[in-house]
Inverse folding.
C-alpha cells in the first residue's frame, strides 16, 4: 500500500503545471513573509483533499481561491509546527542552564549534564518532528481544530494504528524520493548549465559568461517554479494518504 | 463559529468596501504625517553642533531635568508652536479614528456585513472619547501596581537590599500579569458598552464582563487575540518591508529629501495598512462578543455574500 | 471506492489481520479499504473477493455511479 501511496502522490502532484507555477511565484515573493503562509496554506489544502480522499483516487489539485483562508490555515500549520519544535528547544535551554549552574560545583558533572541534555533534545526534536507531521494532518482532518493538533493521545493512537516502524520507514522513504528527485534534476540542470556555457564560449569569453549566467538563472527558475512546489505537494499528498482517522466506535 | 472562522471572516471584512477603507485611512495618514513632522522638528537641532557641547561633556549636567532643558533649549522656539499644533491635530484625528473603531465594533456585534458610515463627526468624536476613557480607567490600577513594584526595586538598588529587590520584582511580575488580565477584560468591556447603546456604565460592570468572557471561553478568547496579534505583526512586517523599498527608492532619487520619502511611506501605510489592520481587529473583537452565545443552527447572519 | 468488505468480513467472522494474511497484504491495507481510502489494483480486488467467498467483484466493491456521471 505504501508503494501505491508514493505512486499516487508522484502522479497527483504532476497534474497541473500552472499550479506549480503559481506556487513557485508565491515562493519567489517569500521575502515579504506573507507568501510563506500562502504556501503553507496550500499544503493545508492538499492535506485536506488527501485526508478525505483515496489512494489511487482521482482528486484534483486544490485551487488558489480565497487567499485569506489560505493565509489563516497556513498560519495555523506554522504555529502548530512551531510549538512542536519549541518543546525540544526549551528542554535544551533548561539543560544548558542547569548544566551551567552545576559546573560551578563540579565542572565534569556540569558538562555531562549539558552533553546528555543536548543529545536528549536532539532525539526529542526528531521524535517531535515526526509527531508534528501527524499532528498537522490530524488538525486538517478534523476541519482545522487546533485541539486536534494537540490531542496527543489521539495522535499516538493514529500512529500506532499505522505502525510506528512503518510510519518512520514511510517518511524516510519519502525523504529519499524527494532527495533523488532533487539530485536528478540538479544533475540535469548542471549539465545544461555546462552546455550553455560551452555554447556561449563559441561566441568568446563574454559569451561564455553570459551563457553560464543564463544557465544559472534557468536552473534556479526550474528549481523554484517546479521542483520545490512539486515536492511540497508530493509530501503533503503522501502524508495525507497515510493518515488514517480513528474510528468513532471501537473497531479492531 | 470557531475561532478560525471568526478570524477568516474578519480578514475578509475590510475588502467589502474599498472606498471606506481609504476614508478611514485618511485619518491615519494625517496622524502619520503629523508625527513624522513632529519628530523631524524635534530631532533636527540634535544634528547641529549646538548639541556638541553636551556630547563633549563641557556642560555641567547633573540631573535628568537639566539635560532635558538643555536639549529643549536647542530647538528653535518657532518649532514648538508647530509641534503643539500638529500634536493637537494628531490627537483629535486619533480620537476620531477610535470613534470609527467604535462603529466597526458595533457593526460586528449587530452582525451587519457593511462598513459603517463615515459621517457625523461629532458623534464619532464622542464615541472615540468613550473608548479612550474606558481604556484609561482600566489602566489606572495596573499602572499603580507596576509603579509600586518599580519604586521598590529602585529603593533596593545598588544591591544593598536584596529582599527589597526580590519583593519589588515579584510585585512587578504580578503587575505585568495583572496588566494583561485587565487588558483582556477591558477589550470585552468596550464590546459590552457598545452592545448596550454606548452607555459607559456598562464598560465598568466588571463581573458581567468577566462572565461574558467565560461564556466565550477564556481559551478561545485568548487564542483569538493571540491570532490577532500575530497576524497584525506579520502584516505590519510585510508592509514595512514594502514601504522601506519605497522610501529607499525616494532617497536614491533625491538624497536631500529623506523627509519626503518618509512622508510618502507614512501616507501609504496610513491610507491602507493601518485602516486594514484596525478594521480586521475591530471586526474580530466585535465578533468575539457574539461568541458568548452558542448557536446550534447555522445563522444567516454569518453567511457572507 | 466504497466496499462491503467490513460487513462481509464480519459475516465470515474473521478479523482484519486474518483477511490481510489471506490476501498477502498488511492489516492497514484492509483497514484503508474498509474506510474507502484506497482504490486497490484489479488483482487485489479479485483476491479479496475470493477470500470473502463471493463470486463477483461487484458484490464486494461498489463503483460510485453518481460520480462517474458527473465526470462525463
Amino acid at each position: 500500500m505504501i508503494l501505491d501511496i508514493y505512486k499516487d502522490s508522484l502522479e497527483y502532484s504532476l497534474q497541473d503545471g500552472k499550479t506549480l507555477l503559481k506556487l513557485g511565484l508565491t515562493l519567489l515573493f517569500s521575502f515579504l513573509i506573507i507568501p510563506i503562509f500562502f504556501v503553507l496554506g496550500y499544503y493545508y489544502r492538499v492535506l485536506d483533499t488527501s485526508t478525505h480522499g483515496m489512494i489511487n483516487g482521482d482528486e484534483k489539485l486544490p485551487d488558489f481561491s480565497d487567499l485569506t483562508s489560505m493565509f489563516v490555515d497556513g498560519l495555523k500549520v506554522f504555529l502548530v509546527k512551531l510549538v512542536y519544535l519549541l518543546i525540544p528547544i526549551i528542554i535544551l535551554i533548561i539543560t544548558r542552564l542547569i548544566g551551567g549552574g552545576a559546573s560551578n560545583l563540579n565542572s565534569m558533572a556540569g558538562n555531562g549534564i549539558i552533553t546528555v541534555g543536548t543529545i536528549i533534545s536532539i532525539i526529542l526534536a526528531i521524535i517531535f518532528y515526526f509527531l508534528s507531521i501527524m499532528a498537522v494532518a490530524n488538525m486538517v482532518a478534523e476541519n482545522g481544530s487546533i485541539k486536534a493538533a494537540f490531542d496527543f493521545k489521539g495522535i499516538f493512537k493514529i500512529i500506532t494504528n499505522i505502525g510506528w516502524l512503518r510510519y518512520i520507514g514511510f517518511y524516510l522513504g519519502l525523504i529519499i524520493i524527494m532527495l533523488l528527485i532533487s539530485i536528478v534534476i540538479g544533475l540535469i540542470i548542471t549539465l545544461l548549465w555546462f552546455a550553455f556555457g560551452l555554447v556561449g564560449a563559441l561566441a568568446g569569453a563574454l559569451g561564455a559568461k553570459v551563457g553560464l549566467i543564463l544557465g544559472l538563472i534557468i536552473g534556479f527558475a526550474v528549481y523554484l517554479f517546479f521542483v520545490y512546489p512539486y515536492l511540497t505537494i508530493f509530501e503533503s499528498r503522501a502524508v495525507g494518504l497515510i493518515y488514517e482517522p480513528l474510528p468513532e466506535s471501537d473497531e479492531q | 463559529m470557531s475561532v478560525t472562522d471568526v478570524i477568516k471572516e474578519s480578514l475578509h471584512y475590510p475588502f467589502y468596501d474599498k472606498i471606506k477603507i481609504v476614508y478611514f485611512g485618511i485619518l491615519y495618514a494625517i496622524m502619520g504625517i503629523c508625527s513624522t513632522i513632529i519628530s523631524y522638528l524635534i530631532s533636527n537641532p540634535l544634528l547641529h553642533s549646538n548639541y556638541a557641547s553636551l556630547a563633549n561633556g563641557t556642560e555641567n549636567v547633573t540631573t535628568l531635568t537639566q539635560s532635558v532643558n538643555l536639549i529643549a533649549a536647542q530647538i528653535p522656539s518657532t518649532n514648538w508652536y508647530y509641534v503643539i499644533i500638529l500634536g493637537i491635530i494628531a490627537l483629535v484625528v486619533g480620537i476620531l479614528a477610535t470613534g470609527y473603531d467604535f462603529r466597526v465594533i458595533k457593526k460586528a456585534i449587530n452582525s451587519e456585513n457593511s462598513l459603517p458610515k463615515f459621517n457625523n463627526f461629532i458623534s464619532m468624536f464622542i464615541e472615540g472619547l468613550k473608548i479612550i476613557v474606558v481604556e484609561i480607567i482600566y489602566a489606572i490600577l495596573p499602572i499603580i501596581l507596576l509603579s509600586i513594584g518599580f519604586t521598590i526595586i529602585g529603593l533596593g538598588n545598588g544591591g544593598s537590599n536584596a529582599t527589597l529587590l526580590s519583593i519589588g520584582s515579584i510585585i512587578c511580575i504580578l503587575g505585568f500579569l495583572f496588566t494583561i488580565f485587565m487588558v483582556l477584560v477591558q477589550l470585552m468591556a468596550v464590546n459590552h458598552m457598545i452592545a448596550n447603546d454606548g452607555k459607559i456604565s456598562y464598560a465598568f460592570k466588571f463581573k458581567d464582563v468577566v462572565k461574558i468572557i467565560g461564556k466565550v471561553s477564556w481559551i478561545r478568547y485568548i487564542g483569538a487575540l493571540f491570532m490577532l496579534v500575530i497576524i497584525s505583526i506579520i502584516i505590519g512586517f510585510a508592509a514595512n518591508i514594502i514601504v522601506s523599498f519605497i522610501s529607499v527608492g525616494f532617497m536614491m532619487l533625491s538624497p536631500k529629501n529623506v523627509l519626503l520619502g518618509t512622508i510618502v511611506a507614512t501616507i501609504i501605510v496610513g491610507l491602507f495598512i493601518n485602516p486594514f489592520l484596525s478594521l480586521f481587529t475591530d471586526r474580530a473583537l466585535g465578533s468575539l462578543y457574539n461568541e458568548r452565545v452558542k448557536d446550534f443552527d447555522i445563522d444567516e447572519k454569518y453567511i457572507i455574500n | 471506492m466504497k466496499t462491503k468488505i467490513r460487513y462481509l468480513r464480519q459475516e465470515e467472522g474473521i478479523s482484519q489481520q486474518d483477511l490481510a494474511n489471506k490476501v498477502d497484504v498488511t492489516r492497514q491495507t484492509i483497514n484503508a479499504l474498509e474506510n474507502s481510502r484506497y482504490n486497490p489494483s484489479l488483482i487485489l480486488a479479485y483476491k479479496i473477493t475470493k477470500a470473502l467467498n463471493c463470486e463477483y467483484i461487484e458484490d464486494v466493491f461498489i463503483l460510485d455511479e453518481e460520480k462517474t456521471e458527473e465526470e462525463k
About this structure: The first helix of chain C runs from residue 5 to 12. The helical segments of chain C are 5-12, 16-23, 27-34, 42-51, 65-71. The radius of gyration of chain C is 12 Å. Strands of chain C lie at 2-3, 61-62.
